[in-house]
UniProtKB/TrEMBL annotation:
Name of the protein this chain belongs to: Peptidase M24 family protein
Domain Creatinase N-terminal: 11-130
Peptidase M24 domain boundaries: 151-354
Top-level division of the source organism's lineage: Bacteria
Gene3D superfamilies from the UniProt entry: Creatinase/methionine aminopeptidase superfamily (3.90.230.10), Creatinase/prolidase N-terminal domain (3.40.350.10)
Length: 371
């Protein structure tokens, strides 16, 4: 896998066309997933301005603080054939961008995660230029993964699977969620990520709280434990997977809940195919859970897109008539939560292909009973 595969040179051209179609005169992209997507440059988010300027007419350029120029040149952006210009400490980088935008640029797209201080600084130097969200342009490109991006997501999925496979090394009664979480975080890195994005270990009643993270609660015999973990790999793509464990013997009631959830999640991953809408896919799992009497306890959407960010388009949610297309990658993560008692969630990343859904998390979805 060469960087060129992940960052094809035609991407800037496609972004430029999409910006023109949206009536924008230019895109202004600061460090983050959009910049990495367009250029391969994984820039540090700093108070000093780094900005890809992509005018609809004229040549794009990457403006970076002079001291960051070697890093920018060494990144895949250095192979794109675009100008990479450094600005000196005494210069005003916002004024430099404004001076180089085509005169009369009425509207620019700024990336969705640009810091407010930078958005406001651009507003000050471009008082007659409206600002819009670049995400409305770039989201349409990023939502369909290329073959190389799908490969990168497969590697991320395999990496987080390896962490789940080792859970028995750390998860046992008598340890706190935080102790277990520390071990998991270390393994996320040793098993093929460069960064830990989140570690959720929800034991006992905490399993009923979808976004519980870690606490000093001591895990007790018979506790169900939701483990939802994710990280970012070297090439910037994210993993996100949830499995459920029981330390000791689970109750019959919990087993029943888990069987319903597993049936729902399987039905959803099996239903992924081009043309099915996001809301239909959501309903397929929701109906199984509702028919079993747990309807009010599935309290969140089915899933979110994933790529260079853990949460991105498409969202698998009621009310979204978006038809799925080959290349779309997203989580399928229904959950059932009985407040103050217990809950469970099963989460796989699935990529839509011409032939249906491909699960990128291959480890068993059955309830794991640990000694
Ligand atoms: Zn998750
Ligand atoms: Zn998720």
């Amino acid at each position: 896998m060469t960087p060129t595969d992940l960052y094809p040179a035609d991407r800037l051209e496609r972004a430029r066309e999409a910006a023109a179609d949206a009536g924008l005169g230019a895109l202004l992209i600061s460090p983050g997933a959009d910049l990495r997507y367009l250029t391969g440059y994984h820039a540090l988010p700093l108070e000093r301005l780094t900005c890809l300027v992509l005018p609809v007419e004229g040549e794009p350029f990457l403006l970076v603080p002079e001291l960051e120029r070697p890093a920018a040149l060494a990144s895949p952006a250095g192979n794109l054939g675009i100008e990479i210009t450094g600005w000196a400490e005494t210069e005003d980088p916002y004024a430099l961008v404004a001076a180089r935008l085509p005169a009369g640029t009425a509207r620019v797209g700024v990336d969705n995660h640009m810091w407010a201080e930078k958005v406001v600084a651009f507003r000050t130097v471009l008082p007659d230029t409206d600002q819009a969200l670049a995400g409305e342009v770039l989201g349409g490109l990023r939502i369909r993964k290329t073959g190389a991006e799908a490969e990168a997501l497969r590697r991320a999925g395999a990496a987080i699977d390896r962490v789940h496979a080792r859970m028995g090394e750390w998860l046992r009664a008598g340890r706190t969620e935080r102790e277990v979480g520390r071990d998991i975080a270390e393994a996320i890195v040793t098993e093929g990520h460069v960064r830990v994005d989140f570690v959720i270990v929800g034991s006992g009643p905490h399993s009923a709280s979808p976004h519980h993270e870690l606490s000093d609660r001591v895990i007790l015999p018979g506790d169900p434990v939701v483990v939802d973990i994710g990280g970012t790999t070297e090439d910037g793509y994210c993993s996100d997977s949830t499995r459920d464990y029981v330390v000791g013997e689970p109750s019959a009631e919990y087993r029943r809940l888990y069987e319903v959830l597993l049936t729902a999640q399987r039905a959803q991953t099996d239903a992924v195919r081009p043309g099915i809408t996001a809301e239909r896919l959501d309903a397929i799992g929701r109906d199984v859970i509702a028919d079993a009497g747990f309807g009010p306890h599935f309290i969140h959407r089915t899933g979110h897109g994933i790529g260079l960010e853990t949460h991105e388009e498409p969202y698998i949610v009621a009310g979204s008539a978006l038809p799925l297309e080959p290349g779309m990658a997203f989580s399928v993560e229904p959950g059932i939560y009985l407040p103050d008692r217990f809950g469970a969630r099963i989460e796989d990343i699935v990529i839509c292909t011409d032939d249906g859904g491909e699960r990128l998390n291959r480890i068993s979805r059955e309830l794991v009973v640990l000694p």
